[in-house]
């Protein structure tokens, strides 16, 4: 679960697990379930098949713009694209 100000994101192995968390939280707090989101606090979230991919392109671009570096030369990434973080 991720919480940012008044936004909450619940990710679980199954839809039922996420719905259970929603039911339990709704007993204590008033909020709306907006179902699956593709944006959360400057993160872009993509769900394809059984994988979830998260990138920070929005945040990175805002930082580059703030420091006037939008046209800077890029460098190689530390993690491979689509690197799976699993046990």
Helical residue percent? 25-40%
Low-confidence stretches: none
User: Percent of residues in beta strands?
Assistant: 15-25%
Order of helices and strands: EEHEEEH
Average of the residue pLDDT scores: 76
Large-scale geometry: flat
Indicate how many domains the architecture comprises: 1
Secondary structure layout:
Layout: E1 2-4, E2 7-9, H1 15-26, E3 39-40, E4 43-48, E5 51-55, H2 57-66
Antiparallel strand pairs: 1-2, 3-4, 4-5
Word description of this protein:
It contains 2 helices and 5 strands, in the order ββαβββα. It is α+β, with helices and mostly antiparallel strands. It has one domain (about 1-65). The strands form 2 sheets. A 3-stranded antiparallel sheet has the order 3-4-5, covered by helices on one side. A two-stranded antiparallel sheet has the order 1-2. A hairpin with a 2-residue loop joins β3 and β4. The two termini are about 20 Å apart. The mean pLDDT is about 75.
Quick summary:
This protein has 87 residues and is an alpha+beta fold.
What are the main properties of this structure?
87 residues; alpha+beta; two-stranded antiparallel ribbon; 2 helices; 5 strands
């Amino acid at each position: 679960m991720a919480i940012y100000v008044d936004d909450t994101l619940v990710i679980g192995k199954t839809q039922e697990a996420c719905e259970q968390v929603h039911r339990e939280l709704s007993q204590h707090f008033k909020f709306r379930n907006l179902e699956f989101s593709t944006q959360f606090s400057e993160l872009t979230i993509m769900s394809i098949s059984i994988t979830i991919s998260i990138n920070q392109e929005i945040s990175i671009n805002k930082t580059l713009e703030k420091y006037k570096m939008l046209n800077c030369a890029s460098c190689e990434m530390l993690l491979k694209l689509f690197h799976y973080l699993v046990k």
